[in-house]
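A quick word before the example. In earlier lectures we treated sequence and structure as two separate objects. From today on, think of them as two lines of the same record. Here is Gonadotropin subunit beta-1-like written that way.
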Amino acid sequence: MQLVVMAALLSLAGAGPGCSSRCHLTTIPIPVESCRGTEYILTNICAGQCETEAENLIDSDELPLQKSCNGDWSYEVAHIKGCQVGVRYPVARNCTCRKCNGNNTDCGPFRGNIANCLSI
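And the structure line, produced from the sequence above:
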C-alpha cells in the first residue's frame, strides 16, 4: 500500500503549473572567449530532476538505478560583431531522463533542496 501511495504522490509531483524541476530544456547565458574578450551567448541546456528509485525502498544490496537529465547535443557557431572568427558553442536539442553515466556525471544521491513543487 505504501508503494502505491508513493507512486501516486510522485506522479502528482510537478504536475502543477509553474513547476519546472522535471527534466527540461532551459535557456541560459554561457561565457565564450572572442577577439573582444569574454562575451555571453544564449544557449539551451538540460536541467531538472529525474525520477529514481529510493534507496530505502529497495530490499537488496544493489544500488538503485539512477537517471540523469541529459539530451542530444549539437554545436552552433556565433559571429561576434568585430571578430573575423566565429565561436563554437554547445546547444541541447532535447532532454530526457537516461541511465546515469558515471564516467561524466556524479550519480550519487541528490544532496540539495528539492524544489517546492515536489513538496506535497
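Notice the following. The chain has one domain: 22-108. We will return to this example when we discuss secondary structure assignment.
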